[in-house]
Amino acid sequence: MSSKRSPRRQFLKNGAALASFAAGAISSSSGKLFAADVPSADLHAYGQRSRFENDVRIGSLALWPIVPGARRDYGFRSPLQDSMGIITPASLHFIISHGHEPPDIDSRDHQLMIHGMVDRPLIFTLDEIKRLPSVSRLHFLECHGNSAAAGITGEPRKLTSATVQDTHGLTSCSVWTGVPLTLLLGQVGVQKGASWIVAEGSETGRHTKSIPLEKAMDDCLLAYGQNGEALRPEQGYPLRLLVPGWQGINNVKWLRRIYVVDQPYMAMMESTKYPSPRLDGKSRWFESEMGPKSVITRPSGGQQLGSRGFYEITGLAWSGGGAVRRVEVSVDGGRTWKDAQLQQPIVPKAHTRFGLSWTWNGEEAMLQSRCTDDQGHVQPTLAELSKYWGVDADYFRLPPTTADMGNFNSIQPWKVSRDGSVSNALL
Amino acid sequence: MRCSSLLSALAVLGLAECSVAFAQAPGYGNLGRAPSREEIQAWNQSIGPQGKELPPGSGTAKQAEEIFAAKCAACHGPNGEGSQAAPRLIGGRGALNTPTPSRTLANYWPFATTVWDYINRAMPPKQEGSLSASDVYALTAFILYRNEIIPEGQVLDAASLPKVKMPNRDGFIPDRLEDIHSLRARGCNAGHCP
Fold it and tell me: Which residue of A has its CA nearest to B25?
């Protein structure tokens, strides 16, 4: 698989060529040279990946402006096809910031104000927040537009050549470190009658999002750390909100203010861009929680199987409603299913890695996975989802429009052809 | 910290949550400082549907003609018709009960306060925050008048703006803002709401 390049062989080849003039090259007893040392100056102070690894995020900063011929996307997608385990490196975590570049904040200057319906409005420095008892939690984030098959970004996603980065790259998973939001809300003293918070970022445009107080008090986190280091600028440095299991838009980056109020504030995104229209003209807003979902990351669209024989089918499963309880895999387009093995740890509202041993007999196959969470909710097929939404398959073949159903969590089929090529077979 | 050692041990395993106990604990002393009234006012730019936070100032459609031409038209078009650079602000009215509903400001946005809030915090790009409150009232009036939502002479200010009813105010489920917060009560399930 992935026979297009063999990083290791490439590494050895280039290394040998270099070795002949590299100081410190080692001769083996047979007189053959080993690979030269990697030039190390940059690697010792702050590590970098091997120069033979070249996965990157793809996408565009925002839907606007429209540049003819250029990709039009909500943000930058994570390369899930080569993901390992369940942690996304911060450098490859998907990014959405609706066109705004990360502000250049010195963490020593950063402050968070909590005010509104509270007994004691307070401004905290980041340093003060870091003095409080911290927690670290594993959580996925997912854009509500991830995998959407209609709408503007549905176009690349519908192509048979689509990769899992195109179809599912707007989700990632990290260990987030910070302070439970309840702790700071306790410090300011939330007043009776308060029922929502409004969170605001410090970027140009100051994205805001209303979140029910109930959720804020439940499991939200003020995060300053990601995977063992400070947040990256594009992930909200130095402070972001984490709203586990809910649409990505809630996880306000560069967090500067929390306003405690008694109703949703109907900020631009939540009241005009995120509602999902029904065919009767009414729209559902604040759908908030992401449903159970899974996708096979290997083999997936754009990859190539080599010889017939053994392959592990592997992928990611998650649910905003809780922990993944079961993942089933089908290699015959959903006629029969087998339970996949779930890798530990299995954590609520986090990616869970699954795997299933498979022997490819060289025939055409249709690979897909189905997630069930610990609430008993099962990931739907496209037909089931369409029925729920009251649309038919033609809906997804419409030209790009502003019609767009969020929280798209349909089962994703990948077709393996006899020549070993793997392609997107959703539509 | 009020977690018993058993609870702490469970918490380490991710089986219990000590943070709740933290929140109810008597607090962390003098962490944080009290902002002044002016500081709160300066930081707080969130305008809710009731418009409580709207600042003084006022404007009419006519007063915005020049500002719109100078600061908005380059991207949104001289008549707000939209371009490759930015979405349409004026027009796009039509039925919503189709697979391809028009989600323009006039056809879709439920609250006029959102128009004010968004222009104030996000427009024009790279010069966010440069418009005066009266400019923002005037630009909002201009967009709403050109969309035939308010009459030409209407003065928009903190009192009148929240009263403007947008054409699609009743197009959302649940209708009442009080009913939005509980996904369970609304019958939302597995990421989808009825």
Answer: A186
